[in-house]
Amino acid sequence: MRAIVIERFGGPEVLRAAELADPEPGPGEVRVAVEAVAVARTKDVAARAGRPPFAPSITAFPHVLGTEHAGVVDAVGPGVDDRLVGSRVAVSAVLTCGNCRACGQGREEACAGFRLVGVHRPGSYAQFCVVPEANVQPVPEDVSLAAAASLAANGGVAAAQLDAGRVGPGSTVLVLGAAGSLGSTLAALAAFRGARVIGVDRLGRDPDRLAGLPLAAMIDGDRPDLAEALRTDVDGVGDVDGIDCVVDNLGITELWNAYLPALAPMGTIVMSGAISHDPVPVPLLTFYLRSQSLIGVRTGNRAQRAALWADVANGFRPPASHLQLLGWDRAAEAHAAVERGEAHGQIVLRVDAGGGSL
């Protein structure tokens, strides 16, 4: 098969075409003929560059990146119903042990043996990828495989974030980095579930970054009066006493300081990113006097992924304006765009079953 591999850590230029042996599915596994791969900032781009948290787990080269993807089941291993062959599927990259305390409680996202396709085993920047049967999700015929790859990459995490923030109809949700791959999916899903959504992003760079999202308000995250703007815009989206839930996919200290005063009593901050790795000041007195919560969310579990696909069955779709399709021969270009902060929405690589120009 044709694949894109890295033979060392480095810049986007280390991505190169290669020919590898076709992988064979083992017991309980399926082989997917890959058609679409979501490009992930941390799991792909940072790992390729040798940055934590996942690069230290890549110990053998050449390595095939590529986590969540979509395609058609091409072969099955022992113990798997061969009627799956030919099925259109989306693939979760999360691998769990099934035996630890977290897995026993249905909290696979906290599994002690948490691993990822594309990091701890060969990924989907390839014509074929082998994964456990439990990781595949049938895709409705009216959902493109590019959209399915985006949903696999972002939908389960977004569902987990909304669960953690107790977001329901009428909730007011602030989404940091709303133009990003996860942020745009989260904003759309929150609105689909009946929430009022305020999106924050760097609109000074591109005023149209949030176009096409179902937002009650949008705010430039670079404006010097951001804290005041948040309070003003919250007042403008309905009869609310502050923000019920902040979903922070960035973890930037300046943004934390701006949105914290707008958090409502009993409000929740859901943290799913730490771009700067800088510490943020947590006013404990305020948190307990106002009954507020701070929760970290790494990814979604099986129940949350199932809830996401139930939403898809009921009509939810990722925002079309935030889905960018590139041929897989442009993987280096996609990585570079993500690193420069120029990408918005989800970049999806289209894998050419015939090998294309690789």
UniProtKB/TrEMBL annotation:
InterPro entries named in the record: ADH-like_C (IPR013149), ADH-like_N (IPR013154), ER (IPR020843), GroES-like_sf (IPR011032), NAD(P)-bd_dom_sf (IPR036291)
Cofactor(s) listed: Zn(2+)
Gene Ontology MF annotations: alcohol dehydrogenase (NAD+) activity; metal ion binding
Catalysis: reaction(s): a secondary alcohol + NAD(+) = a ketone + NADH + H(+); a primary alcohol + NAD(+) = an aldehyde + NADH + H(+)
EC number: 1.1.1.1
Keywords: Metal-binding, Oxidoreductase, Zinc
Pfam families, sorted: ADH_N (PF08240), ADH_zinc_N (PF00107)
Protein name, UniProt field: alcohol dehydrogenase
Lineage of source species: Bacteria, Bacillati, Actinomycetota, Actinomycetes, Pseudonocardiales
